[in-house]
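# nightly structure sweep
# worker-07 picked up a monomer target from the shared queue
# config: single-sequence mode, recycle default, output format = structure tokens
# input follows
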Amino acid sequence: MYMNNYVVVAIFLILGVLLPVVALTAGRFLRPYKPLDEKYTTYESGNEPVGESHVRFNIRYYLFALMFVIFDVETVFLYPWAVAFKHLGLFAVVEMAIFVGLLVVGLIYAWKKKVLQWTSI
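# output follows
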């Protein structure tokens, strides 16, 4: 009984490794190979690139993006819970209250550390 489950997992692991390798290898043999100098230049909307390629951004962009992702994931968890609210019972209400409470604690911490203010450091 259990051996059959391991066989299925092994088949999926083998296919998960084998299929991308076969697809990439087949693509390498089937694609045309015509190297030109123009293909190795940087393309920037048809214009020649000017200046450095690496630009430093303010860390606040990253922090705002991280906060967005956190609350976006919260929405992804809250929606199915809200849809099945009647069927889940009191345990799910307590569980979701703990989840939202932890997120609120994180938001308060970020607020106290002044992460959400857009001012220069």
